[in-house]
UniProtKB/TrEMBL annotation:
Annotated source species: Betula platyphylla
Residues that coordinate or bind Ca(2+) 1: 68, 73, 75, 77, 89
PANTHER family linked to this entry: PEROXIDASE, PTHR31517
Top EC class of this enzyme: oxidoreductase
Signal peptide range: 1-19
Major subcellular location class: secreted
Cofactors required: heme b; Ca(2+)
The protein, known as: Peroxidase
Enzyme Commission identifier(s): 1.11.1.7
Cofactor note: Binds 1 heme b (iron(II)-protoporphyrin IX) group per subunit. Binds 2 calcium ions per subunit.
Amino acid sequence: MVGGNFLSLFLLVEIIVSGYRFGANGLSMNYYLMSCPVADPIVKNTVNRALQADPTLAAGLVRMHFHDCFIEGCDGSVLIDSTKDNTAEKDSPANLSLQGYEIIDAAKEQLEKMCPGVVSCSDILAMAARDAVFWAGGPIYDIPKGRKDGRRSKIEDTINLPPPTFNASQLITMFGQHGFSAQEMVALSGAHTLGVAACSSFKSRLSKVDPTLDADFAKTLSKTCSSGDNAQQPFDATRNSFDNLYFKALQRKAGLLTSDQALYADSRTAGIVNGFAFNEAMFFFTFQGAMVKMGTLDVKEGSKGEVRTNCHKIN
Ligand code: HEM
């Protein structure tokens, strides 16, 4: 009995001292509680101000966090500029349309004034993506912090980002390699409730008869592409709102990318799409869990990384 009480007390103290440590890595929900308590509010205010001025940047922040985490883990590698000796991830064709870098820079600049050398660029990006989701009407959720910034950013690594031509099997395999279930993969794809794709990302669908593409929607896409490869098409009818219209579009065969519509064409994922289209709360719940998980991919701790003073270059 006494032993049991002692164990409970020990666990309680352990939880308080560790600040809800997250899994095996050294992340925790209140990582900056003592070292930089303004970290969360500064990022949130910076994101809110920027999105008020340009709501389309919410999509950019969410996508940038994904592209960061899938390459070399969530370590801010996507933020590093190329140098004369190194072509960085951000100059890969897959990353050329990323947007929102200036929001990360603005938050970093303020944080370096308040708590120099404390808050990593990878944490700022993870917090900014979270705040962008909420700003656009999506779920509110807390994320563990304590990621260190990486020192490697190479264009060739971006081969590991999924191309828009992937089918469901390829998506299930690639996301599975990162530890995601098919349901989590479909939920993460639901980030395409925000933003746009360029014609170059979907025009291959228009050159042949595609039974998974609605005829009227195909006409809309052809019209968009008549303005050139850079012409943009929203993923759903509400490009700045985080909702479940993306999944409803898939049900109408009005998904934009091959990889979007593939989720409805495959029996392993069609039911998940239907579930999220029917029940937005279920989409939000699964999405937030999957985002927290994505944000902990291959996180660098301690001396495996650093806190960059300028997000564009290693220290
Ligand atoms: C499932 C595999 C995925 C593929 C094949 C894919 C591919 C793409 C492509 C090709 C674009 C358009 C790029 C352009 O034409 O400029 C895009 C945009 C976007 N992606 Fe994904 N993506 C995937 C998953 C994700 C995930 C997991 C997230 C975030 C959690 C995400 C977030 C976004 C957002 C928000 C945009 C719009 C960006 C903007 O408007 O600035 N994507 N994606």
